[in-house]
Amino acid sequence: MANRLSQIATRTGDAGTTGLGNNQRVPKNSLRIHAMGDVDELNSHIGLLLCEPMPDGVRILLVEVQHQLFNLGGELSIPGFELLKADAVLALDEALAHHNAALPRLQEFILPAGTRAASQAHICRTVARRAERAVVALGNEEALNDAPRQYLNRLSDLMFVLARVLNRMDGGDDVYWKSERLAQQNAAE
């Protein structure tokens, strides 16, 4: 792995390229850099979510997610390297099962709304989906391990579930979409 950053303003990117962890220089608009940037943005949004009140178990889970996203970003920064392990994906599967078990079944689509924490979790969900699309695009061009794509897929699902958990934290509920079709159907019954 390349040396850790000792200074930030290196000016080496002024010509539109950036260095990967293996010292290779690539254009700043390459698919790999897009994927790394989306993962970094996701991690930043989770950091913002962590500023909100939440159950301790959710906080511990999200801090672990941040560490795993850093591993994912590191893996993306070094072509052919593996940092994100399959057990990280399994941990998300277990968290999904745990949190889903405590939630009522969805009867309708929900809006990305409610409490500020839940709304921020929905932002994390959408950024995770974008990061997943970027990793898929990169994987269509270069060989990648499966774990990064799978992790982002599970994480976006988990963020949806956690938004529901956070909306219920103080007795609240989901914000349901008011479907005109369903309203008409219910009125006709």
TrEMBL record:
<dbReference type="GO" id="GO:0005524">
    <property type="term" value="F:ATP binding"/>
</dbReference>
<keyword id="KW-0169">Cobalamin biosynthesis</keyword>
<feature type="domain" description="Cobalamin adenosyltransferase-like">
    <location>
        <begin position="8"/>
        <end position="165"/>
    </location>
</feature>
<feature type="region of interest" description="Disordered">
    <location>
        <begin position="1"/>
        <end position="26"/>
    </location>
</feature>
<keyword id="KW-0808">Transferase</keyword>
<dbReference type="InterPro" id="IPR016030">
    <property type="entry name" value="CblAdoTrfase-like"/>
</dbReference>
<keyword id="KW-0547">Nucleotide-binding</keyword>
<dbReference type="Pfam" id="PF01923">
    <property type="entry name" value="Cob_adeno_trans"/>
</dbReference>
<dbReference type="GO" id="GO:0008817">
    <property type="term" value="F:corrinoid adenosyltransferase activity"/>
</dbReference>
<comment type="similarity">
    <text>Belongs to the Cob(I)alamin adenosyltransferase family.</text>
</comment>
<dbReference type="GO" id="GO:0009236">
    <property type="term" value="P:cobalamin biosynthetic process"/>
</dbReference>
<protein>
    <recommendedName>
        <fullName>Cobalamin adenosyltransferase</fullName>
        <ecNumber>2.5.1.-</ecNumber>
    </recommendedName>
</protein>
<dbReference type="InterPro" id="IPR029499">
    <property type="entry name" value="PduO-typ"/>
</dbReference>
<feature type="compositionally biased region" description="Polar residues">
    <location>
        <begin position="1"/>
        <end position="10"/>
    </location>
</feature>
<dbReference type="InterPro" id="IPR036451">
    <property type="entry name" value="CblAdoTrfase-like_sf"/>
</dbReference>
<comment type="subunit">
    <text>Homotrimer.</text>
</comment>
<keyword id="KW-0067">ATP-binding</keyword>
